[in-house]
Write a structure and sequence with these properties.
By secondary structure, the chain is of the alpha+beta class. 43% of the residues lie in helices and 17% in strands. It has ten helices and ten strands. An eight-stranded mixed β-sheet has the order 3-9-8-7-4-5-6-10, with helices on both faces. A two-stranded antiparallel sheet has the order 1-2.
């Protein structure tokens, strides 16, 4: 039986590890613990992280067990009482704890829709969990992919670059497409959006620098010699949406689709998550559009 002080140590060290080392948001930890059957309030997790108000003994036991389980399942780490630290579990394969949005019960007899709608941009850990399902190919198509670029700079390697390396190491080809900043559409697109969002002027001005940084990161990653490669392309079309696709031609294909909304920041654009097997017809329509964007007037930089 683990005593209360050990539970407290596991909870405190484990939460710091998840948030500071692996880039989890506190809300993600809360939701993943809930999926695993460990229920505490969101404020309890916040109090544990800040240390401003220590959770009581009953909550500490739940927090210690829940956080330890998250680290075990998703990171293959276990607490060692001798070293007072988390260590790797031998021969362990990490698994994602899938957090699905709660669906309110309705009286409508119609079956549920074959997609999930999220209210904005995914957290980095959610995006990595999505990418890790790929076996053949990943497509990331956006305007600048600035947020994707920031993952290289702002997140610790264990939260983004190391999982990305593992994906490339199993032979997955990663293809990224961004809007050509000197093309026919970029200036008009950003100037139009800037009429209601002034920050879009700076976004356009920064586009060449973002593209150059992405190119630099991709070249460096490819030099490490993985079976899979990072590709960087530009396209010269009107930017209709942000799309992420894994194994688009396979039966197990999945997609994240965010249609750009005028007057709404891209970070807050609703994201549609669609599985090919749930609705092949809709998936095919979206994927045909993505392929058209990729195949016409595109230029490979890396």
């Amino acid at each position: 039986m683990i005593n209360i002080e050990t539970s407290r140590l596991i909870a405190e060290l484990g939460l710091k590890l998840l948030v500071d080392e692996y880039g989890y948001k506190q809300i993600e930890v809360y939701k993943k613990m809930e999926v695993l059957g460990f229920k505490v309030s969101r404020s309890t997790i916040s109090n544990l992280y800040t240390g401003e108000k220590k959770p009581g003994k009953a909550f500490i036991k739940i927090l210690g067990s829940g956080i330890a389980e998250v680290l075990k399942v998703e990171r293959c780490l276990a607490f060692n009482e001798d070293t007072k630290a988390f260590i790797s579990i031998p021969n362990c394969k990490p698994r994602s704890i899938v957090v699905e949005p709660k669906i309110e019960k309705e009286l409508d007899p119609n079956p549920p829709l074959p997609y999930v709608l999220h209210d904005g941009r995914f957290y980095v850990s959610e995006k990595i969990a999505f990418f890790e399902k790929a076996e053949v190919e990943i497509i990331e198509l956006g305007i600048r992919l600035r947020n994707f670029k920031n993952y290289f700079n702002d997140k610790k390697e264990s939260a983004f670059k190391d999982p990305l390396r593992a994906i490339l190491d199993k032979g997955v080809q990663f293809k990224c497409f961004v809007l050509e900043p000197t093309g026919n559409f970029a200036r008009r697109y950003f100037e139009d959006r800037a009429k209601v969002q002034y920050s879009e002027k700076k976004a356009f001005a920064d586009s060449p620098e973002v593209l150059a940084e992405l190119k630099s990161h991709f070249i460096a990653l490819n030099r490490e010699g993985y079976s899979g490669k990072m590709e960087l392309h530009t396209y010269d079309h009107f930017p209709y949406y942000h799309a992420s696709v894994i194994d688009g031609e396979a039966e197990s294909a999945e997609m994240l689709m965010a249609a750009y909304l005028y007057g709404v920041s891209r970070a807050n654009t609703p994201v549609l998550k669609l599985k090919k097997r749930n609705n092949k017809k809709i998936f095919k329509r979206y994927f045909n559009s993505i392929k058209a964007m990729m195949e016409n007037q595109s230029n490979q930089l890396v």
